[in-house]
Amino acid sequence: MKKQSPRQARSKKAKPRTKRRLRPALRFPLLLIALFSLAFLLSGGLMILSPRTWQGIGDFLPRPLSEPPAIEQTDARKLTPGDRLSRLIFIRRAVRARTDRENYVRLSDIPRDMQQAIIAVEDNRFYEHPGFDLQGILRATLVNLQYGQIEEGASTITQQLVKNLFLGSEQTFGRKAEELLLALDMEMNYSKEEILELYLNTIYYGSNYYGIGAASEGYFGKKPRELQLPECAMLAGVPNAPSLYSPYADFLLAKKRQIIVLDAMVRADVLDKRMAEDAKIVPLHLAH
Q: Domains in the chain, start-ordered, CATH in brackets?
């Protein structure tokens, strides 16, 4: 075995001492960085992790092409994977590009009866779920298995909104997965009230009326804020099957659907049974 010289031995011993001298020197700045990071997060820095924080970045990007919601399009533009990813990341920017602001009706101008009617009949757990309703999916599955056909759907108001805005009526597993992702994205970046407002302004009410403003004027010759309970209940029943439940297509079917909506409001405990029964017999006067 080759014997080491004294100089080589001293050199090997010196290296650990150099490392030991460096560690205390690095420890203090690292401690400062850790303390600064902790103070930053505790003082509101966590906001940078919030999905809403990133929405403002989309305003610095080129403005997207403004176009009607998917529900109004007959020949939708084909999107690239990049377009879909951008839509998911900057959802508020994408929603603005698909929203008609000229005929937009604020939630404060939509009667409470209309809001409660649409929630009761379309998505009675709207304020409880995160964009999709697992309980509703299980219930619908059991009902459909019982009847051997599709009798009940499980789409939430949020899912219907993203479908109406972006996806159209295509039925594929890929589209359904994208619908769920967009619904979760909407729930993270919009309040429930904002989602309900957007939904009421984009759904199809039959007879070529898109949105609560056009439907209210078209069916009853009124501004949305002037609608009464019987009219709200009839309008809330139309989107389930617009070609069937439009009062202009079949008033009797629309009236039967109105009764279903009023009963749903009673079950949801947002309407007294006596008021519901009174609303069922109020004559309705259509604009045409």
A: 66-71+79-97+108-280 (1.10.3810.10)
